[in-house]
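Q: Here's a chain of 218 amino acids. Please give me its 3D structure as tokens.
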Amino acid sequence: MTFIGVSISFIFVNLLGVGLASGVSTNPGWDEIYHTSSGALLLAGFDGLGGFGTFCAVVVTLELCSNAVPSLYAAALDFQVLGKVWKAIPRYFWVTVAAIIYLVCAVAGREQLFLIFQNFLALMGYWRAMFVMIVFEGHVIFRRHRGFDWAAYEDQSKLPIGAAAPISFLVGWVGPIVGMYQVWWIGPVAKQVGDTGADLGIWLGIAITAVIFPPLRF
């Protein structure tokens, strides 16, 4: 039921995005508004609903703040798993630190924030794909039958060196570097695909990481 609920909500929101994008390509007024900001385009999409549309736009804007809450909490947990010293510091402190960091980034990049997100999210797609492959292989190949000793995760003497994951991750970046197709970098492999090129960075990164990690982990 959770999967169905999440899927339906994502599909609905994505369809709204498709509608706004279609309006940009067919309505010159929306195209001009879009070049002002994506928020202005969202307001234009609600114009036909009058005052209720303005209310909906405000609700959607506030949802951006609520979407940050799970990420802030996750960031606090990430800080605490760095070690016992980090864990001793209260979680609310790390939530505050993370909020200050993203607030400073937002204020500093407000004039070019959309462009920054476009560039940053592209890089996030590459590293997340390789990270997921490492976790997947670690679970399926090495932990499927042995399971996890949850009592030992803070005992360094019972843990592996942990070199396999970062080494395979760093080597895996060769794939995105030679295969990505972005406005700021086009890899030599990406240039060879067809007449216009194609972004193969994620797939090359996954493939290289999948090959490198198992022998290093053994």
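Q: Can you summarize the key feature?
A: The mean pLDDT is 83.
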